[in-house]
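2024-03-11 09:14:02 INFO worker-7 job=invfold-0412 stage=load source=structure_tokens
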């Protein structure tokens, strides 16, 4: 699927906003178009952070008072964490807000970045940056759905890829993207 097709799929819907949550945050869902298809860019958060330490995540974070809204926060945080310049991102659209631990309400933006980007990892926030092919995430058996719901009443998803467990809000955002842009169907237990 091309970036234009993903953008069109995102434009055909109105993203859902959540009420509640006392900590607004935003993330960028970076995509790279490669010869073998689209790849998601993910990070492993540093182990010494106060929130979500060591977890697989999209670049992003809390919306600061100086930010001109969630998109600016997502782009600022992406630059701070992995060195992707805001002017190198083509925003394709927005997904539904999701909740995350510690009372965060996260606004995810999908953006295309140049292929094989030369990331600059900020070791104060990020331990690692890596990519995952979209096609690999949609392979049978790659997604596990827990029988229980999260404390917020949402499904608990786990994507397993190359020894990594991608779960929580990050996995819910990925499921959303796959459903909207790739007609992915999740079978719940």
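2024-03-11 09:14:09 INFO worker-7 stage=emit residues=189
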């Amino acid at each position: 699927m091309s970036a234009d097709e993903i953008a069109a799929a995102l434009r055909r819907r109105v993203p859902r906003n959540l009420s509640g949550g006392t900590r607004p945050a935003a993330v960028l869902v970076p995509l790279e178009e490669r010869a073998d298809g689209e790849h998601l860019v993910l990070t492993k958060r540093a182990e010494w952070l106060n929130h979500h330490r060591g977890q697989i995540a999209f670049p992003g974070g809390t919306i600061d008072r100086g930010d001109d809204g969630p998109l600016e926060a997502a782009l600022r945080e992406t630059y701070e964490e992995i060195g992707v310049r805001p002017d190198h991102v083509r925003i394709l659209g927005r997904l539904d807000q999701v909740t995350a631990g510690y009372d965060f309400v996260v606004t995810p933006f999908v953006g295309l970045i140049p292929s094989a980007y030369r990331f600059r990892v900020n070791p104060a926030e990020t331990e690692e940056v890596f990519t995952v092919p979209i096609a690999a995430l949609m392979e049978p058996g790659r997604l596990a759905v827990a029988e229980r719901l999260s404390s917020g009443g949402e499904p608990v998803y786990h994507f397993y890829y190359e020894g990594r467990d991608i779960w929580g809000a990050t996995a819910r955002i990925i499921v959303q993207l796959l459903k909207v842009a790739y007609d992915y169907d999740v079978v719940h237990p």
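2024-03-11 09:14:09 INFO worker-7 stage=report msg="The chain has a mean pLDDT of 90."
2024-03-11 09:14:10 INFO worker-7 job finished
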